[in-house]
Amino acid sequence: MTSRTVGVEEEFLLANPETGQILSLAPRILRTAGDDLEGELTRQQLETGTEPRRDLAGVRAELVRLRRSAADSAAAEGAALLAVGTSPVPVTPVATTEDRYLRMMDHFGQTAREQLTCGCHVHVGVESRAEAIGALDRMRTWLPCLLAIAANSPFWQGEDTGYASYRTQVWDRWPSAGGTGAFGSETAYDALLDGLVGSGVVLDRAMIYFDARPSERYSTLELRVADVCLDLEDAVLVAALGRALVNTAAAAWDRGEPMDETRQELLRAARWRAARSGLGGGLVDPATGVPAPAGTVLGRLVAHVRPALEETGDLHLVTAGIERVLGRGTGADRQRAAGRQVGAPGVLRYAAEETLAGC
Q1: CB–CB of 14/351 below 8 Å?
Q2: Which residues contact 142 (CB under 8 A, 6 or more apart)?
Q3: Is the pLDDT of residue 84 over 60?
Q4: 1 falls within a domain
Q5: pLDDT at 245 over 80
Q6: By C-alpha distance, which of 303, 357, 285, 287 is closest to 328?
Q7: Which residues contact 288 (CB under 8 A, 6 or more apart)?
Q8: Which pLDDT score is estimated for 2?
Q9: Number of H helices, E strands in the chain
Q10: What is the number of alpha carbons within 13 Å of residue 167 lying toward its C-beta?
């Protein structure tokens, strides 16, 4: 089994927890920050990305370093860093003044203007695009589990949405977002992308926002389904499970096992269920297509990828991580609990503290 590399990209909001404002300071921060930070669609966001590593201890160390570095750079401009999928308080997004982002604002209208969401993207190394497609075709039904674990966006414009991951609902407004059907081959995948770009609906291949996709920049399968995690330990857990899923699915592809034929419509329903309740209710079991307690479904996920976890030495990290998140709750659960105690503006202070906990 290949010891695949893992890299993690995290997106963050910038805020003043004392005034309860989301701040448009990214351009100023980026002017003086090093290569660790990048901009995003809005001026209220920063993005970091780890180097690819084969050991999860190294991934964790990189996440700690990058969160600390980003927080220090933000603090120098009077802002705090928030690892939340959506803003807990009302905010008007302010677009970054780059040509491509401005084109997106013009082309997609309100969908683009309201996109102030933060995700966590896990890049898992692959040998080829063909392997990436083969793995995706055999693992896509498990992706809602990663979404449920990482769910961290219960608020929208200061209101509790009732969702654990409302970021997912907002993100799905893009015409190229969400889960995918099975492709069967690299040729079929590329034909689909050519068709999407050729339709004029999406601007380019960089706007292919599937929950998982072969990266256009790296030799990786990029898993994009997760909210940014409030707790960096949850980000490490998602990275570990993501790599195990790719390892398991790529091995099945290499053995010539058939791809999963689950209809995209059913996958969309399972994904909605994960976004709605996170780990606080049932998840759709990929093996049966019917609801089961979240702990049961996650147990089946671990059983599914156990050989891969044992091969990489990540089994204990994953089992302990799942026990932790089931017992303590997701980021969404914890944001809601803080909101009940101190109100939505107080969630900013809580999130700023939790973003750097363990750093």
Answers
A1: no
A2: 245, 286, 301, 304
A3: yes
A4: no
A5: yes
A6: 357
A7: none
A8: 55
A9: 13, 14
A10: 30
DSSP secondary structure, 315-348, as one string? HHHHHHHHHHHHHH--HHHHHHHHHHHHHHHHHH
Whether 153 contacts 84, CB under 8 Å: yes
H-run or E-run covering 67: helix 56-75
pLDDT at position 3: 83
* pLDDT higher than threshold 90 for residue 98: no
What is the structure's pLDDT at 224?
98
Residues 132/208, Cβ–Cβ less than 8 Å: no
What average pLDDT is seen over the chain?
96
CATH number at residue 154: 3.30.590.20
Tokens linked to 304: 């599914």
User: Residues 6 or more apart from 91 whose CB is under 8 A from it?
Assistant: 22, 44, 116, 157
Q: How many residues does the chain have?
A: 359
Q: What is d(CA 93, CA 75) in angstroms, rounded to the nearest whole number?
A: 21
Nearest to residue 238, comparing CAs of 109, 125, 151? 151
The range of the structural domain enclosing residue 83 comes to 6-355
Tens of pLDDT, residues 168-212:
999 999 999 999 999 999 999 999 999 999 999 999 999 999 999
pLDDT winner (highest mean) among 1-10, 89-98, 237-246: 237-246
Q: DSSP assignment of 44-56, as one string?
A: TEEEEEPPPBSSH
DSSP character for 229?
A: P
Query: What amino acid occupies position 52?
Result: P
Residues 12-34 have pLDDT tens digits of 999 998 898 999 999 999 998 87
342 assigned to some structural domain: yes
Number of domains making up the chain = 1
